[in-house]
Amino acid sequence: VHMLSQEDIAEDITIVKQLLSRKKTSRRRNREHLNSISSSDLLSARFEDGKLYYEGSWFTVGSSVWIDKSGTSPLNATISAINTGEVWVRRRDGSKTKLYISQLQRGMCSIKHER
């Protein structure tokens, strides 16, 4: 059986306290950022009656769409599920991707009907 010395225990406690304070600071920054976004900065996106309403258009399960995320090329996909907080899409290669409605509201990504 290996026993830790008081010095080892004190060192471990110091490390844990440092990590916890960093985590609290990070959470506080994220909360401040979210609070700084006003409702006028948000785009219109919501879940209603099993459908997604986004910027004047309705999207349903089975809709073919183009997804544009910043930093990536537009992605062609089909909506496979919609709920109160997220939209699941199936890419043409068969993989699934989740989009949060909050991402659509903040303009982090956009979605358009395939024409």
Report on this model:
The chain has 115 residues and is an alpha+beta fold. Helix content is 32%, strand content 36%. The protein has two helices and eight strands, in the order H-E-E-E-E-E-E-E-H-E. Strands 7-6-5-4-8 form a five-stranded antiparallel β-sheet. It has a three-stranded antiparallel β-sheet with strand order 1-2-3. It is elongated. The mean pLDDT is 85.
What are the SSEs and their pairings?
Blueprint: H1 6-36, E1 45-48, E2 51-54, E3 57-59, E4 64-69, E5 75-82, E6 86-91, E7 96-100, H2 101-106, E8 109-113
Antiparallel strand pairs: 1-2, 2-3, 4-5, 4-8, 5-6, 6-7
- How many angstroms does the end-to-end distance come to? 70 Å
Number of strands: 8
Helix content: 25-40%
Oligomeric state as shown: single chain
Q: How do the strands of the widest beta sheet line up side by side?
A: 7-6-5-4-8
Label the overall shape.
Answer: elongated
Q: Main sheet?
A: 5 strands, antiparallel
How large is the count of helical segments?
Answer: 2
Task: List unreliable stretches of 5+ residues.
Answer: none
Mean pLDDT across the residues is 85
Overall SS class: alpha+beta
Question: Could you give a short description of this structure?
Answer:
Helices cover about 30% and strands about 35% of the residues. The chain contains 2 helices and 8 strands; from the N terminus they run αβββββββαβ. The strands form 2 sheets. It has a 5-stranded antiparallel β-sheet with strand order 7-6-5-4-8.
Key words describing this protein structure:
32% helix, alpha+beta, three-stranded antiparallel sheet
